[in-house]
Design a protein that fits this description.
- The structure is a homodimer of 161-residue chains.
- With 161 residues, chain A is of the alpha+beta class.
- The first copy, chain A, has a single domain, classed as Arc Repressor Mutant, subunit A (Orthogonal Bundle).
- The first copy, chain A, contains 6 helices and 5 strands, in the order H-H-H-H-E-E-E-E-H-E-H.
- Chain A has a 3-stranded mixed β-sheet with strand order 4-3-5. In chain A, strands 1-2 form a two-stranded antiparallel ribbon.
- In chain A, a hairpin with a 7-residue loop joins strand 1 and strand 2.
- The radius of gyration of chain A is 18 Å and the shape is globular.
- The relative contact order of chain A is 0.12.
- At the A-B interface, strand 1, strand 3, helix 5 and strand 5 of A face strand 1, strand 3, helix 5 and strand 5 of B.
- Strand 5 of chain A pairs antiparallel with strand 5 of chain B.
- The structure holds a DNA duplex (25 and 25 nucleotides).
Amino acid sequence: MNEVLVRVSSEAQQREARLLQALRDAGLRLTPQRRAICHYLAHTDAHPTAQQIFAAVKPEFPSLSLATVYNTLDALVRLGAVHALGGAGDGAIHYDADLRPHVNLACLQCHRMVDLPCEAVADLNRRVTAESGYRILGARLVYYGLCPDCQRTAREASPTP
Amino acid sequence: MNEVLVRVSSEAQQREARLLQALRDAGLRLTPQRRAICHYLAHTDAHPTAQQIFAAVKPEFPSLSLATVYNTLDALVRLGAVHALGGAGDGAIHYDADLRPHVNLACLQCHRMVDLPCEAVADLNRRVTAESGYRILGARLVYYGLCPDCQRTAREASPTP
DNA sequence: ATTACTGCAAAAGATTTGCACTAGG
DNA sequence: CCTAGTGCAAATCTTTTGCAGTAAT
């Protein structure tokens, strides 16, 4: 009955472990700040920006600086442990620690991003890795537009129907 | 013998016509500046940033302002006529006027983007459009990492082999 | 004629950087 | 220890905005 909860929880924990291990493997130091950032990234599905991560972690680490957040994100992206998805109509980069094959949907109006599971992406990943000659560090599979909520809002605002 | 050249040329011309038509359909005015920007976008495969477009078009229109470039790009992206691909390690957004199904490869070191044709993308587009409930305006299908050239450079710099 | 569009300059943000200090391994 | 990492503040850069003049339709 709480199998789902257990599984969800362990999903995030695995993600967190993976992030920490990536930093360790790269020979980078595991500071409390980096741990906290990894913890937050692993446990959210909000596709946060650097500023949002900063705001979320700051209360726990009042001395945390934005520079450290950017620094850590840079490292994680270069290690391929986190994906840099790009903007969503706001001028800021959104990040995703979920490496399972999926595409992301971004709303240009409310600036939110959500996941859309998609098995086809695994194939795409394989093919690109095999055919490109690139050393692939990450992906940015984002469709942007208007989410259902914002479509409704737009329709109400301008009486087209 | 020059069939390929003819076809390539008409490809770019079709793109240009499509961009101009999109602006027209939206009721936006076709100023010489917008025409020039569309012309450049349609005829390049460099996935330029706003600054690069500005630098490329400026000589033809010495009075062109960067604000107009951003303004025009914004319009084209919101109309779904141009895709906003996001950054490539530089902090600037790259744009792509080629709407044919493909993924893009970005090198985080030399900041170049190239296309990788991929039939599977057409399916992905269809599926996302059908399943998401979003009004899709554009896509950002980018894999980032190190291009073959930059991998070689990196290897020479640090004698790992 | 209208009214959207342009250019310019200034503003707003996001991200980066330099440096002295701190602490992880 | 010793050097990587941190926080802070300043710097940099991209992108946005306000406004008065200009031109597309």
